[in-house]
Specification:
The chain is mostly helical. Helices cover 57% and strands 9% of the residues. It has three domains: 97 residues, no CATH class; 91 residues, no CATH class; 84 residues, no CATH class. The strands form two sheets. It has a two-stranded parallel sheet. It comes from Hyaloscypha bicolor E.
Length: 290
């Protein structure tokens, strides 16, 4: 079914619903909508802009124009629903097309409503368990204010950032060090420059994690948890060089004997061999998936 036909069908379904029937639609992620007629044009940069771009980003990048057109298109679908028995709740980042389309409708700014809770969480985590004796309360409140400002209501980002700051405290960081670290941390979770990728890059087990991801991604049959458990031991004891791991001319055989309540069974899996060029492409794909 084409996109115009789908939009027409959606409108007709709503139109034929009797007034006595009450409908409520909850639609999340309007800002991640992709134009169907340009589906093949969404490369890595476009997907990054689509998922993490701001109003300023859409002005700066040429592809922002047609992505913004897509936002206007999806907004108009819900904006044009006028039936009194149909209620709609949509969620999105505060991008210009949605601000304009829904300017006159009631709305909740969730990140404004959760500010106090986030501030209390950050302050209590950074000043609890004896930490209050080493840091000034007012200065720590300023750090909590900064976290709240950058979080935009995303609790997961807050939790990860707080854990990074607590690690710094355990290492003896001063308040100035914590402020500097907070400023350098990515303001988003996903994407090539997001907090997830930073955590992977900084992880002491990064090479091992990449090898395990490769095993899962390219094995003929997805390995079960038993195999991954023993694979981790095998990879940890092997050469930590990623290229050496994938450039090995022999396939890696993983085997283990696992005892359960009924019987002893053997687990054996094979890992496909990759050339260096294949490995480079695979690592790029892995980073995009992360």
């Amino acid at each position: 079914m084409t996109w115009p036909a789908l939009k027409k069908a959606f409108a007709q379904v709503l139109e034929k619903i009797p007034d006595s029937t009450k409908i409520c639609l909850f639609v999340d992620g309007l800002d991640e909508y992709r134009m169907m007629d340009r589906e093949k044009d969404y490369g890595q940069d476009e997907m990054h802009l689509l998922s993490f771009g701001t109003n300023d980003d859409f002005k700066a990048y040429p592809e922002g124009n047609w992505i913004r057109d897509g936002h206007q298109e999806i907004a108009s679908i819900f904006q044009n629903i006028k039936k009194s028995n149909v209620k709609i709740c949509v969620a999105s980042r505060e991008l210009a097309p949605f601000e304009a389309a829904f300017a006159t409708t009631p709305r909740l700014r969730i990140h404004e409503l959760t500010k106090a809770d986030i501030h209390n969480y950050v302050y209590s985590r950074l000043m609890g368990e004896g930490r209050e004796y080493f840091y000034d309360a007012d200065e720590m409140k300023e750090i909590a204010d900064t976290v709240v400002k950058h979080a935009e209501g995303v609790f997961l980002w807050v939790r990860l950032v707080v854990e990074e700051l607590r690690k710094g405290q355990d290492d003896g960081d001063r308040i100035e060090d914590l402020c500097a670290k907070l400023i350098k941390l990515p303001k988003t979770l996903g994407g090539r420059d997001g907090l997830y990728m930073r955590m992977v890059d900084m992880s002491p087990s990064r090479d091992e994690a990449i090898k395990l991801f490769q095993l899962v991604l390219y094995h003929r049959n997805p390995p079960d948890l038993d195999v991954l458990f023993y694979a981790a031991d095998d990879l940890y004891e092997s050469d930590n060089s990623i290229m050496n791991f994938f450039n090995d001319q022999k396939s890696l055989a993983l085997s283990a004997e696992i005892q359960n309540d009924r019987h002893l069974r053997a687990v054996k899996q094979e890992v496909k061999f990759f050339t260096i060029e294949q490995t480079k492409r695979n690592l790029d794909q892995l980073e995009r998936r992360l």
